[in-house]
Amino acid sequence: MRHDAPVHDTGSQRRRFLLAMTVRFSLCLAACLAGPVLAQNLTLKKPPPLLSRAELRQCMDREDTLKQRADALERMRESGLATSAEIGESARRLSEELRRIDATDVAAVDDYNRRAKAHDAVVEASNKRADAFNAAIQSLNTDNADHLAACATRPYLQSDKKALLEERRKNGQAVTPPGKAPAGDRRATSI
After folding, report:
1. Is the residue at 72 inside a domain?
2. Spatial CA neighbour of 84 closest among 116, 115, 130
3. For residue 185, which of 37, 114, 162, 181 is within the disulfide window of CB 3.0 to 4.6 Å?
């Protein structure tokens, strides 16, 4: 085609050209916008560092302490339930006795008041123990959350745990059975 010849452009050629340019521009724009988003999604978080053997020992000791505290609180809860049952039974007996008491018998009224006062003291002591129990539960829950944040989110070598369990056996300490990992497994594991 000669350059000096007039070009007769029809409408359909112009539309195809504009469509092709629009598609190319859209593809370029999409690639430019998608690049940072894809790069952001491909960025992987660095895993937390492995617990050292000393850190793992501290975590295991802390876990044992938390378990002992939880066991003591369970015994305290059971004792509190038994005390509550006794208090309920005592309150029932006092209530029945109050309905039968002769209000004109001063000695009987004084005896009843003495026993009711003793009952109230037992209830007050029980309420104080319940408040202390609730505070201890709250403290245990906080300490458990701290332990989970410090220990459960960090991996460790299974061989380190196995060595620490063997160390505990030799020292006569209670040993929790190791996890389900095979004996020679050196993969990192979370607590």
Report:
1. yes
2. 130
3. 181
